[in-house]
């Protein structure tokens, strides 16, 4: 069968629209064949009409009887015609007031929809019409309007981003800028040269902000950084005006990743020797502070910019057993044996066991240090704490060699004051060691630690590690890799992995602090 011409399709749809807007049943009957089929709603027996007489009857009942203020628009540019058969697919927009029966007080409703229709022709008349409508109700829908331009209609359907404003031109140097803000910054930092064009104003003060992702295991990292830049001299930036931390250093004695923004008096005219600065920081601080990554930024990573932060506490299993106190001195002496970073790297290379999610304890090397009972007590404590607060996520887990003798407690929260993590971990340790019963633990979590008969001592702050702050939005805006996530550069990830080994070894050296805390 031959294809149908574009003019016949357009003329038929135009006549269909006029029959609809004028609510004329005679007009609608003339565009259909005698035995035509009109599927107003697919797979619905009551919405399928056979023959011209039934179609006209439906038109009188539905279109003439229930609708008013009808608007119709055929989107002719999106017509599709079959090359071998007299079939076309068309799109139209419609808008009308619809009367709904048996709706007391809510009978009238404004209806808007975009409709697609498959049409089969016999000559110039329609023998088959099948419609599919997409309603335009709901708060997320943006109705373009029945008379929107083709461009606006196409853009609205695809939700194209708005077009950028036209560039702004500097009248002095004819430089082009994407916004007035950029133009004003250009004018502020420039002056008119002898030849009448803009040149950099070297006297204009501009803030220089250098953002670092760092690891530290020392007391007073802020003081050490200030001393380091003082020793570096003014060749790099000059005087340091201020340091801003994503997580204030007093929140944790050690950090695997923390973000510090350093404000200098003036931005340098030359490229920043970032790699040199990072190596000098490690050298001067004797590796107590190491740099993962960073760069120049235009705003500091202030504490309020972080969504939350993750902390890690690594507790030897022997200190979590109720009977562990009897052998505390011997355990402390064994744990003080010097594990080094080299031991950690060797264990990682030799690790042949495939990691599985939630392996049974007996399949891990930690089974020689703890039991299922202790493991379940810690998991139960973590679950109770998390259930009691919407703002805390906590998880306990075993660790791989050579730190398989430790229980890892991971806590995600936004700590507003120092000591919150230490108090929480101290409570969990007391519960695991049966120093308090389940009722006391539950009351302490929900109310206050004053609910316990025996005072709960806070965990030693020297053994709490800030793992990293969550500052994804800041990283994206500044286009920097600062923390460990899916999009982080391999160099930064490797630096953080190496720092993690060093932090764990440092914690192992401090086990005597935990031994004294348990004994007292």
Describe what this molecule looks like in 3D:
The chain has helices spanning 6-21, 25-30, 52-66, 150-158, 180-188, 221-232, 274-284, 328-335, 341-350, 372-388, 420-432, 438-446, 472-478, 490-509, 511-519, and strands spanning 32-39, 48-50, 67-74, 80-81, 87-99, 108-122, 125-135, 168-169, 176-177, 190-192, 198-200, 208-216, 240-245, 254-264, 289-297, 308-316, 393-397, 406-413, 464-470. With 520 residues, it is of the alpha+beta class. It has 4 domains: 6-158, Nuclear Transport Factor 2, Chain: A, CATH 3.10.450; 168-200; 208-305, Alpha-Beta Plaits, CATH 3.30.70.2510; 308-519, Alpha-Beta Plaits (2-Layer Sandwich). It is elongated. The chain starts with 5 loop residues before the first helix and ends with a helix.
Main attributes?
seven-stranded mixed β-sheet; eight-stranded mixed β-sheet; alpha+beta; 4 domains; 520 residues; Alpha-Beta Plaits; 19 strands; Nuclear Transport Factor 2, Chain: A
Task: Give the strand tally.
Answer: 19
Q: How many individual helices?
A: 15
Average residue pLDDT: 83
**Cα separation of the termini:** 96 Å
CATH fold-level topology of the largest domain? Alpha-Beta Plaits
Rg, nearest Å:
36 Å
> Which blocks of ≥5 consecutive residues have pLDDT under 50?
325-329, 349-357
Please outline what is shown here.
With 520 residues, the protein is an alpha+beta fold. The protein contains 15 helices and 19 strands. A hairpin with a 6-residue loop joins β8 (168-169) and β9.
Any chance you could write out the topology, listing elements then pairs?
Layout: H1 6-21, H2 25-30, E1 32-39, E2 48-50, H3 52-66, E3 67-74, E4 80-81, E5 87-99, E6 108-122, E7 125-135, H4 150-158, E8 168-169, E9 176-177, H5 180-188, E10 190-192, E11 198-200, E12 208-216, H6 221-232, E13 240-245, E14 254-264, H7 274-284, E15 289-297, E16 308-316, H8 328-335, H9 341-350, H10 372-388, E17 393-397, E18 406-413, H11 420-432, H12 438-446, E19 464-470, H13 472-478, H14 490-509, H15 511-519
Parallel strand pairs: 1-7, 14-19
Antiparallel strand pairs: 1-2, 3-5, 4-5, 5-6, 6-7, 8-9, 10-11, 12-14, 12-15, 13-14, 16-18, 16-19, 17-18
